[in-house]
Every structure is written in C-alpha cells, then in structure tokens.
C-alpha cells in the first residue's frame, strides 16, 4: 500500500552548465522507475549545481547556472534547485552535500511527524517509514568511480551503501560493468538502481555550449527561458570556455594535498 | 551581405505527427542552420503538414488532435507553422501533390501580400519581413520549397509500391529534399546506390544531427500507454493536451490495425493487382547473404563463431496460424526458432546467437513483416518481405545491415 512506501528524495549533483532537457528527463525516468518497484514514493527532486571552486573548464558562474536551472524547473511541480552546495566557500564532496540534504530532510520529517529517530519506545506501526535520499546520476557518472584519485573509498561506501544510487543509462554505456568493476559498488548492488532509457537522447551540455559558440540553434534541447537567459547575459562565448583552462579539478587537487597513506601500507 | 543572391526557402515536413515531438521541431532548426550556413539560402518559413486520417496507419489518432498538438508546439516558434490543408482532404494525398500544393501557395503568396495561411499575426509579419526584406526583385527561381525529412523517409523510397517513381523524380528533381540523418543510417550511401537519387544529388541536402536525439513518436505512444512520463520529449503544452484528452491508449493503438496503408492500397488498385501480398509461409533456401559478418560483429559474436556462421547454408521455414507466426532458421550447425503474434510484444532470448534478452515486437509495415528488438543493442531488428517470388530479409544492429535473399525450396 502507498502509505508503506518509503518517501524518497532524488538528488542530482553536477555542473548544469547549462541545464538541458536531458537533465530533467533523468528525473522523470528515475521517478517512474522507483515507483514501479512498488517500494518507494518519490516526494521530491533536488538539482544541486556544483560550486565555482570545482575548477572545470568552461564552468560559468554558479549564480548563472542556478538561475538557469530555476528557470528550467519553473514548470516542474516536484524538482527544485538548491544553492547550498554552490554557495560553499570551497568545493564540497558529493557525500558532504548528501549529508547536508539528508539532515535537512530528516529534520523536516521529524518536525512534521513529531517523531524522533533516537527516541525510546515504539513508533506506531501505521506511521510512514523514514524518508531516504538517493543520488541520481547518468551512467557516465558511475564510471568516475573508476578514475583513480577522484573518489575516496569511504565516500563511495557512504554514497552507495548508506544512501543509494539511481543510475540512468543511455546509448552504449554499460552501467552493469561499472558496478562490477568496483568492489565497493558491487557489494552494495542492491542499493544501486539501474534505469534504462530507451529513447536515445544524448544532449550533452558540452555540445550545447559548443553550438552556442558557433551560433547554432539549441532550441528544443534546452528550455526557451534558458536560451533567453543565455542571450541576455551573453554566457558561453570563446572567452567563457577558456575559464579554468589548465586548472586541476578541485577534487584531484584536494587529494594531492593529503598524505599518501596508501604508499606506507 | 545584402542577401540579394540568396535563394529563399520554405521547408515542408509531411508525416503523421502522432504526436509531434521535440525531435520533429529540432529537424527544422537543424535544417535551417545547415542551409543558411551554406551561404546560398535564407530559410523563411517551416510548414508542418500532418497527414490525413485516410492514411490508415496503425495507431493514427484523429487529425484534429494531431493538428491541435502541432499548433500548440509551434506557438513558441517565430518561423515554424502548421497547415491543415493536407489533413483536411477526404482522401490520402500523395506527398508529391502536397508539395505541389504548397509550392503553388508559396508563389501566390509571393505575388500577393495577402497571405492565405494560418500564421498568427506577429509570426506572419516576421515571415513577411523575411520574405520581402532586402531585395527589390523577386525572381521565381529565387524561391524554393524543399521537403524536410528524416533519413527513414529517404530510405522508404526503396520500399516497393510505397512511392511512385515519377513522384520521387518530381520531389527530388523539381523541388529538393533536406534529409536529417539519425545515427545508424547513411543517406550518402543510399543516394549513391540509387541511380535516380544520384542524378539529383545536388538537390538533396544531408544534414547531420550533432546530438543523438531519437525521440520517435512510436516510443512516445508506448510510454504513454504504460503511464510513463514523456515530459521533456514533447513540448509541455502537448503533454498537457494529451493528458486532458486522454489520447494514446491501448485502444487507440489498435486503430487501423490490419488495414493496408493508403499508398499501398492505391498502388495495388492502380496496378489492378487482385492478389493479396504474397505469403511468407514456405520453406526457403538462402541464395544471397551480404554483410552477415558486419551484423554479427555489431552483436559482439566472437570471430570464431562468425567464421563458422559464414560458411553454413541457412534454410528458413515460416509457418502461420492466424496472426501467430513461427520462423525456424536451420543450418547444419545451429537451429533458431521464434514464435510470435503480430502486434504483441514478447520476450526473446537469442539463444545460441548472441544470448541476449530482448523485447521484440513484430508488426506489418506495408508489405514488410518488421521486428523491433529492444535491448542492449541499438537499432536492432529485422524485416521480412516477398519480392518477385523471393524472400528478402534484412537484419539490423547498431547501423549494420545484413541483407539475405532466399528462394523457394524446390522439394516442397
């Protein structure tokens, strides 16, 4: 029955540079899939643009990326934009963003139900189960777990094990393989949901930026309101694409600063 | 540039638009960018012309709904319009005639500012500014109507009885074609292989899609029947319209089921063909096998197995009971059998071939028995049909096509 379904919030982290119809499609596909399991009730979706400190080439200011995402999601009644991550002084690990949002969701839930996780005594069996937060990503994201140095093992463990992943695959990517290649991911495979997209629709933000620089039309790939915003603020030029060129991605720079413990083992 | 030497172009897209998707609209944007980039053309207007109900395609819902959805989706465009003329004709109209009609209208509009189409005022003004701005003379030859289509339409020129040869000559030779490619199809190769298309190759503009965007209306209808979200595949206004009117159900998909497509019906009438399409049921021996290796490679079959498969002679036995078909493929090395009901999706395990699980759906497309195999591999499927007493089979996978021809087994 619906009241026993686990309330679920989907969180998508990424550059959103700019947000495309494909990003929003991921949320729709994931919600349909999670509902079809019969175990979850998707109660919300969060788009969390990465902060400027991420250091990725061509990344325009978070202020613009958030504004575009808000415009794009104006017509959605369940997906919203959250700026917490992009407003942090330094780049934050995905797991830190997840902890923040889960803390917030839990607090809201406890306030609304008057329940407390650590309270003694039985809660009513009829009350709804605790909400969950899962990370929504494309299949290319799963492959980032294989890039040496990009992820800390503990973080993979926490994201996949504690929270859970929903991965939407498109085209020729094989998410099953990415899961099998990682010991941590395959240990938590029951908490990793693979969603198949049958419609091949491979709009990438990189290609959209390229088309914008070349003066080609991107209508129907990104919402009209976002196109208007891009023109108004003259985003995505040759110059903006050179931003952060040659900069080491913040996660890799951060890792380089840490003592190499593994070598001493 | 003063634009004096630019040829003005109107793009016309014909099709079911059942329903219109973002991909249809994208095709217009891609075509305009491509043509204007050549420095020879200025695209002034796009026309969406949904086919009439008399086309009799399976699952084709009423034209008034398809028109309304086209209207809603072109609302936000300042150059793409829709036109109900074709859909209002009581009988199905050949595409060549549709093109002729719009060309005539275009010429009339050119001479007379009193535009007869249904473009909204602002849009109309903008289109007129485009049309009349700049140059002072309007030579007839400075104006062109081109048919905009996907690579599938170009390839359908090769389907027997679907097109009249003189119509293709007229469309391609006199007007022109803009063909937007989808991954897995190679229009250049197709043009090269047809003497007629080769002759008019300068009138065929091939446009490459720079992002794969394979939203098919068939897929959209399937998702809608299953209660899945189709948001961001179609304009929001169209999604709302579909919900409001409860369009696209299992029932609506059965519309025209088993009815012969109007163009095929007409070609049969014209040729005074009394016979039904030849039956596939027989025992068949292979006589020609082209690119089996490419197809097997696309499926990921090992070199060793491929080598064996290339050497053996295949035989096919096709049996039918009602709409239940059984196709047995036998050879000295391997046997493979499938049974299916036309129009009913089934789970297929390609045991002994590439050992994959796919969801297969077999339907009649004209005189072809066509199967779509959805699974790990893209664009996978096959088509069986009869041509001059021979059984033709095409096997598709990820853009590779294997063509096989079988003759009737002499002993049967």
TrEMBL record, chain A:
Compartment list: Nucleus
Sequence ranges assigned to domain Cytidyltransferase-like in this UniProt record: 11-210
One GO cellular component term noted in the UniProt record for this chain: nucleus
Signal peptide residue numbers: none
Cross-referenced SUPFAM superfamilies: Nucleotidylyl transferase
Co-factor requirement: Mg(2+); Zn(2+)
GO molecular function: ATP binding; nicotinamide-nucleotide adenylyltransferase activity; nicotinate-nucleotide adenylyltransferase activity
Assigned keywords, A-Z: ATP-binding, Magnesium, NAD, Nucleotide-binding, Nucleotidyltransferase, Nucleus, Phosphoprotein, Pyridine nucleotide biosynthesis, Transferase, Zinc
EC numbers on record: 2.7.7.1, 2.7.7.18
Source domain of life: Eukaryota
Protein's pathway: Cofactor biosynthesis; NAD(+) biosynthesis; deamido-NAD(+) from nicotinate D-ribonucleotide: step 1/1; Cofactor biosynthesis; NAD(+) biosynthesis; NAD(+) from nicotinamide D-ribonucleotide: step 1/1
InterPro entries given in the database record: Cyt_trans-like, Euk_NMN_adenylyltrnsfrase, NadD/NMNAT, NMNAT_euk, Rossmann-like_a/b/a_fold
Biological process per Gene Ontology, one example term: NAD+ biosynthetic process
Reaction it catalyzes: beta-nicotinamide D-ribonucleotide + ATP + H(+) = diphosphate + NAD(+); nicotinate beta-D-ribonucleotide + ATP + H(+) = deamido-NAD(+) + diphosphate
Pfam families named in the record: CTP_transf_like (PF01467)
Matches recorded under PANTHER family: NICOTINAMIDE MONONUCLEOTIDE ADENYLYLTRANSFERASE, NICOTINAMIDE_NICOTINIC ACID MONONUCLEOTIDE ADENYLYLTRANSFERASE 3
Subunit structure, interactors included: Homohexamer. Interacts with ADPRT/PARP1.
Similarity-based family: Belongs to the eukaryotic NMN adenylyltransferase family.
Protein name (Swiss-Prot/TrEMBL): Nicotinamide-nucleotide adenylyltransferase
TrEMBL record, chain B:
Subcellular locations according to the entry: Nucleus
Pathway named in the protein's UniProt entry: Cofactor biosynthesis; NAD(+) biosynthesis; NAD(+) from nicotinamide D-ribonucleotide: step 1/1; Cofactor biosynthesis; NAD(+) biosynthesis; deamido-NAD(+) from nicotinate D-ribonucleotide: step 1/1
Reaction equations catalysed: nicotinate beta-D-ribonucleotide + ATP + H(+) = deamido-NAD(+) + diphosphate; beta-nicotinamide D-ribonucleotide + ATP + H(+) = diphosphate + NAD(+)
Gene3D superfamilies referenced in this protein's UniProt entry, alphabetically: 2.40.128.20, HUPs
GO cellular component entries: nucleus
InterPro entries listed in its UniProt record: Calycin (IPR012674), Cyt_trans-like (IPR004821), Euk_NMN_adenylyltrnsfrase (IPR051182), Fatty_acid-bd (IPR000463), Lipocln_cytosolic_FA-bd_dom (IPR000566), NadD/NMNAT (IPR005248), NMNAT_euk (IPR045094), Rossmann-like_a/b/a_fold (IPR014729)
Domain Cytidyltransferase-like residues, every copy: 12-222
Matches recorded under Pfam families: CTP_transf_like (PF01467), Lipocalin (PF00061)
Signal sequence residues: none
GO molecular function annotations of the record: ATP binding; nicotinamide-nucleotide adenylyltransferase activity; nicotinate-nucleotide adenylyltransferase activity; retinal binding; retinol binding
Swiss-Prot/TrEMBL cofactor(s): Zn(2+); Mg(2+)
Enzyme's top EC category: transferase
Record's keyword terms, sorted: ATP-binding, Magnesium, NAD, Nucleotide-binding, Nucleotidyltransferase, Nucleus, Phosphoprotein, Pyridine nucleotide biosynthesis, Retinol-binding, Transferase, Vitamin A, Zinc
Domain Lipocalin/cytosolic fatty-acid binding: 283-408
EC number, UniProt record: 2.7.7.1, 2.7.7.18
Biological process annotations from GO: NAD+ biosynthetic process
Known partners and oligomeric status: Homohexamer. Interacts with ADPRT/PARP1.
Reported function: Cytosolic CRABPs may regulate the access of retinoic acid to the nuclear retinoic acid receptors.
Protein family according to the UniProt entry: Belongs to the eukaryotic NMN adenylyltransferase family.
NCBIfam families xrefs: nicotinate (nicotinamide) nucleotide adenylyltransferase (TIGR00482)
Name of protein: Nicotinamide-nucleotide adenylyltransferase
Organism whose genome encodes this protein: Eleginops maclovinus
